[in-house]
């Protein structure tokens, strides 16, 4: 008997990044409760009342943006909803991933279900149908300035509701009109304000933030493991990770990283083998891992906290407060997430920056028994030299992507929207940085495992021995040159699939630091 799928109540339960991803991956099912349906009906009635009244209310009986003072007749307010979806669908560039598009649907579904947007149940049911059936609109990646919400991306996201645009259907891109024929659908009837409610909001930015939270978390967790493996390979000291040292500068994230690595190195024969060596201290890329990795973890936590406020917020405009109050404000402005995403971009870049330095260090032959370029027979063999070229190129590219998009603003809408967040660009470039970071960590993993080999038969801790053994099931020790590109692709899959973390999870109790609830769960 199949286990019943867990239920998430849109508009009622608290949405987190993890829950949004679980809904997107079919592990959690979203529903509208009867209580929320009643609130939605009541909220919709407020809009219907104002749409027929004489008082000008932005977006209900007026035009949008610079046309906010243009009154729209009750007969034309419905036509306006369809026109706004069409006219605002001006995105360009490659489509975002289906995961991000699906997350946009999920986040919008939850935001509209908070019952302050005047949306009808029929529209929400169609959105839910797309989510449940995994029929995902195709959304271009460029065109949002992240201010009056993510107008262009959201317009593309909801064009299929009216038979326009395109979707991914059973793994294939088809037009919405083809979808209507295949599924015997008809266009959703849009009522006054509904078109505006659909395109107004920060769901493009927020969907990127959700993916970044998971991706950066994975990179941070694996970077600690890989750095610990490199410390062993280069005969680094465990003293810089001692808990008492980090109690004197008690950043929780730094303490979490130092605690993990200190315990990963505990009972290591490799550490014990060089306790009486003459080296006074290690280079910063080994010695300062807690400070650098910890600072990036602090950035991750900041983004996570702000994103989860955003996921449970009403970010369209105007907002219906109660039966007599509708406020036109700026909840759609993406600045809160734009700044946090730019912060996360720097955090991801810095993890790659220090990882590249450890890769370079591993090639120098500084550790006893570890040859230059990580291979004994060089000359005819270039060994691991070129892998660091790639990590250097990726680290440099990441630095160029760190200019904060949120520092820019170009007025739009004839000056009505005279300050914009560019948060959509913050999200897109941060994702690119993390894609590059995964490759940098993959290269460090290869070099760390190679350096680790030269200390055989000495062993490290149970977890690091397990991590090293797992790497060796996919990537063999290199005694001569080969096509290292193939090794890099194997290694990056280990990073992306969280494979190393699965080994660590088997012995999780051995490396708990007391900060897991903050830095491990989302």
Describe, in plain words, how this protein is organized in 3D.
It is a single chain. The chain has 522 residues and is mainly alpha-helical. It has two domains: 6-201, Orthogonal Bundle (Fumarase C, Chain B, domain 1), CATH 1.10.275.10; 208-317 and 326-516, Fumarase/aspartase (Central domain) (Fumarase C, Chain A, domain 2, Up-down Bundle). It has 21 helices and nine strands. The strands form four sheets. The protein has a three-stranded antiparallel β-sheet with strand order 4-6-7. Strands 1-2 form a two-stranded parallel sheet. Helix 15 (335-362) packs parallel to helix 17 (423-453).
Compact description:
With 522 residues, this protein is mainly alpha-helical.
Question: How are the SSEs placed, and which strands pair?
Answer:
Layout: E1 6-9, H1 17-24, E2 28-31, H2 34-51, H3 76-88, E3 92-95, H4 98-112, H5 121-132, E4 136-137, E5 140-142, H6 151-158, E6 166-169, E7 172-175, H7 176-183, H8 194-199, H9 203-233, H10 243-247, H11 252-264, H12 269-273, H13 284-287, H14 289-311, E8 319-322, E9 325-327, H15 335-362, H16 385-400, H17 423-453, H18 462-474, H19 484-496, H20 499-506, H21 516-519
Parallel strand pairs: 1-2
Antiparallel strand pairs: 3-5, 4-6, 6-7, 8-9
Helix pairs in contact: 1-4, 1-9, 3-6, 4-5, 4-9, 9-11, 9-14, 9-15, 9-17, 11-14, 14-15, 15-16, 15-17, 16-17, 17-19, 18-20
Strand content: 5-15%
Strand count: 9
**CATH level 4 superfamily of the largest domain:** Fumarase/aspartase (Central domain)
Helix residue percentage: 40-55%
Mean pLDDT: 94
Straight-line N-to-C gap = 30 Å
Strand order of the largest sheet: 4-6-7
Structural class: mainly alpha
In this structure, how is the largest beta sheet organized? 3 strands, antiparallel
CATH class of the largest domain: Mainly Alpha
Unreliable segments of 5+ consecutive residues: none
Rg over alpha carbons:
26 Å
Fold-level CATH name of the largest domain: Fumarase C, Chain A, domain 2
CATH architecture of the largest domain: Up-down Bundle
Strand/helix succession: EHEHHEHHEEHEEHHHHHHHHEEHHHHHHH
Kindly give the count of domains. Answer: 2
Q: Sum up the overall morphology in one term.
A: elongated
């Amino acid at each position: 008997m199949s286990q019943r799928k867990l239920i998430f109540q849109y508009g009622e339960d608290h949405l987190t990044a993890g829950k949004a991803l679980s809904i997107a991956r079919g592990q959690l099912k979203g529903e509208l409760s009867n209580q929320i349906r009643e609130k939605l009906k009541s909220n919709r009635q407020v809009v219907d009342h104002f749409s027929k009244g004489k008082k000008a209310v932005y977006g209900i009986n007026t035009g949008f943006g610079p046309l906010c003072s243009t009154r729209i007749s009750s007969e034309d307010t419905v036509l306006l909803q369809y026109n706004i979806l069409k006219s605002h669908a001006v995105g360009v560039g490659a489509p975002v991933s289906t995961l991000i598009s699906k997350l946009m649907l999920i986040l919008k579904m939850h935001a509209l279900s908070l019952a302050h947007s005047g949306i009808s149940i029929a529209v929400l049911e169609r959105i839910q149908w797309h989510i449940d059936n995994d029929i995902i609109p195709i959304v271009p990646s460029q065109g949002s300035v992240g201010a009056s919400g993510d107008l262009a991306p959201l317009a593309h996201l909801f064009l299929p509701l009216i038979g326009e645009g395109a979707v991914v259907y059973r793994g294939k891109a088809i037009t919405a009109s083809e979808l209507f024929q295949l599924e015997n659908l008809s266009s959703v009837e849009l009522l006054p304000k509904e078109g505006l409610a659909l395109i107004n909001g920060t769901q493009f930015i927020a969907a990127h933030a959700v993916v970044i939270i998971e991706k950066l978390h994975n990179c941070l967790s694996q970077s600690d493991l890989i750095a610990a493996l490199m410390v062993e390979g280069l005969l680094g000291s465990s003293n810089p990770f001692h808990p008492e040292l980090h109690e004197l500068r008690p950043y929780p994230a730094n303490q979490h990283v130092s605690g993990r690595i200190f315990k990963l190195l505990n009972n290591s024969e490799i550490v014990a083998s060089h306790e009486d060596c003459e080296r006074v201290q290690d280079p910063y890329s080994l010695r300062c891992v807690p400070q650098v990795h910890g600072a990036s973890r602090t950035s991750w936590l900041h983004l996570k906290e702000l994103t989860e406020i955003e996921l449970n917020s009403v970010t369209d405009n105007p907002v219906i407060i109660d039966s007599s109050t509708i406020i036109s404000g700026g909840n759609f402005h993406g600045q809160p997430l734009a700044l946090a995403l730019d912060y996360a971009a720097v955090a991801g870049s810095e993890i790659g920056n220090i990882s590249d330095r450890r890769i370079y260090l591993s090639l120098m032959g500084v550790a006893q028994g570890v040859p230059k370029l990580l291979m004994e027979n060089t000359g005819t063999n270039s060994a691991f030299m070129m892998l660091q070229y790639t990590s250097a190129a990726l680290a440099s590219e990441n630095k160029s992507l760190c200019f904060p998009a949120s520092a820019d603003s170009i007025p739009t809408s004839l000056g009505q929207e005279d300050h914009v967040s560019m948060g959509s660009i913050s999200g897109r470039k941060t994702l690119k940085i993390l894609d590059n970071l995964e490759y940098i960590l993959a290269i460090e993993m290869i070099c760390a495992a190679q350096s680790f080999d030269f200390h055989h038969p000495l062993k490290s801790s149970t977890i690091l021995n397990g991590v090293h053994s797992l790497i060796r099931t996919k990537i063999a020790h290199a005694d001569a040159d080969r096509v290292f590109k193939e090794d890099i692709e194997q290694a990056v899959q280990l990073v992306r699939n969280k494979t190393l973390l699965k080994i660590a999870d088997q012995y999780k109790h051995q490396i708990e630091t007391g900060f897991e609830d903050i830095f491990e769960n989302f």
